[in-house]
Amino acid sequence: MSTRIGFSGDSAVVVEEGPGRTGYVDPGAPVDGRLVTLPDGRTVKQVTPADFESLVTVRTLYLDSGDPVAGVDPLAGHLSSRRLVVHLREGIRDESVAVWFPGSPSDDQWEVDSSPTGDVLAAIDRAVAAAAPEGWHELLVECEAVGARLAVWSTVTMADGAKLHWAPPAIVGQWFHRMRAREYKPHRGVWHHKVYRFKPGQRPAHVQAPLNAAMMSEEDAADELRLMPRNLALAPERLLRLAVASEQSQRAYFAADEDYDGEPESVRLFDGVDESGKPIWYRPVLGTRERAAVSAYLRGAPVVLSARGVTVDQLDPDRTVPMGFHTDGRYVWPSAAAYYLDAHGVPPAMPLLEHIRAARHRLPADIPTLVLDRAAAVAMGRPWDEPAADALAEQVRRSLEPVIVEKRISPRFYSLFTARDRAWSILRVGDRYRVQWGLDQRTAVDFADVGQAVAHLTGQLFVNAEDLEFQLEEEIPAWQSPLAVLGDDPPVAAFAAVTTVMIENLDVDRYGGPDGNLVFRAGTPFEQRGLPPEFAQRPYHRYRISGAAWQVVAVTAAAGGVGYVLPESVGEYVRSGHLREISVADHPGLPPVTDAMRAEAARTPGGWVYCADPDADPQYFPDMPSAILLGGHRVGPDGRFTGETWVNDEYRPSPRRRGYPEPQTPFEQVLGYVAAGWLAHEWILAAAMESPFILESDGRGGLRIGVDANGRQFLVVYSSPRFVPPNAQNVQQADGRDLAKALAGLTLVVNPGGGFGIELPGDDLVLVAAGTPPA
């Protein structure tokens, strides 16, 4: 069984596997990370490989058989009487980059290694002495390393002369790994086998020993030349032969130019600090040519977080270091990485360097904007929120809106983030955006930025617009309406359906002044227009459309009324003669002057005596609204009529003059007044409370509830017997206030199928019955 171990400075911690490339460590581990709570209730620190100097797997084996040793703590070491117990350490290979060798330009030129000169052997001595078995007299510690594989084992001589076998703790192997990195030189490579003799109080002594041939596999050899490239002419024959065999087995290939689909990882600038606080690093030095290639890569990558300031050089306080962060989509690194490489020869962290080598030191052709955004979040140390699909779709729609509206593109021919046959679609594919026609992948074009994709789709819609237009009477989204409502009438988006139609020789009307452009088919009941209730008190005007056919936007209210949005205001068309206002047909004129009117004039010198429609019941109209006024007679200063009259053009014909039936109940009287525009809509709700209704039961004493095609539930009632159909069954009578208790969530349909009915929201009736006015 293997254990994942992460190293940072003198610390080694066990890393539990997490999602993606992340892992979990103890919350007190001396590494950066984010505290999270796992489903099992544990609080841990979530980390990435870049949070460690090295991340490896460690196995403890009996070297003579290869069997695993049970019950071993790789952080503490293991003592055994069985011959050759070994800790076998393997780097965690990323197959997306561990793909070929050599990994860098090879040359014989290299500069003097400027890495810190701290005594790695002394550090190994301290690590061995701290963990060595109690009572030891001498230790012979061996290390074999090729590529990402490293094995450490030891023979220990006890004070009584007994010989045992010891697998040192994992940190000892890390120090040997650091020794290899320090002693590597690009022109000749580095050692593969070291043996040291340790005695208490003495400096370790180096012992010559041959390399174990069984230790080196083809993959190990290829990794060796990839991780520590060198002049191949000077490479050992067996190392080169095995590496070539790995390549010939088709393991070696160029890294694919595929987008990385995870969160970019930040990399550390150094591997730690020494006793004085000065930075240290354990990385193979770069040759002159590769240093230039890596520096160009680091500097040329897009900047995701810029800063104008500089910071002090941690290796030379007299110099300054630029600030900022770069990314290639896979890793995020500070601008200082290129500076320290150029100024002091500090190589970038190994995961980044390995990635650069796998890419042949070439930056990606482009990096998706979403990846750059993620990298910026990593650089700032904050979480990155994936753009919500709905918000992104709305952003794209707004960008496409001008061409779609101007060119009248049918919704059948465009699709946002869903591929659809015979339509231009914009799709998200990974972190890129794709534009294609229908389901044909051959037409697909991918973009790194959504703005580029929108621009391409805009062009396709523009050049193909003639074949993509919507047809007359085809329903379109409200935002795509080629015409907008003027004034304070409800906008197009307030209606249930929107189409374009041709109209001619049609009578239309509107509630409101001539500055608006929303009209309805003449005679459409007010309740079916989808207008605010207070609009019923506005001046009523009727017009006739003349001339050639008009193309307009038709809007259908939820209650069924059909209106038209005209290109210009009503006033403009009246002035141009395209609309002709029609006088109210049934205005009866002013009544004759009576003695009662003369007496009123005598009491109102200098004023007016107004005449109301005699069909108006005074109990409903104490304030004489304009809609019921026929007009008036002017009174002179002497209290006599002057002969001047005023005919009210805002008068609205009474229910009787409109042909409505004579009311038989208070509800029908109020309904007539509301339909005539004499009373506000709220009156009908109150009247329903105090009126009886006739309805059909379900035969078991319950209400007969209907459901329409849209799933709306309704209850049909009749305001008087004359409206009850002859085939009605199980007829009964109920008061409106009693009915209201059962109307929550329903629609009350009064007198359906005739010209004298109305639909009332049951929830409004429930509120009125409870003494609460509806909103």
Automatic annotation (TrEMBL):
Residues 506-582 form the TNT domain. It holds the Pfam family SseB. InterPro entries: SseB_N, TNT. Residues 644-663 are annotated as: Disordered. GO terms for molecular function: NADP+ nucleosidase activity. It comes from the Bacteria. This is Type III secretion system (T3SS) SseB-like protein. It comes from Actinokineospora auranticolor. The lineage of its organism: Bacteria, Bacillati, Actinomycetota, Actinomycetes, Pseudonocardiales.
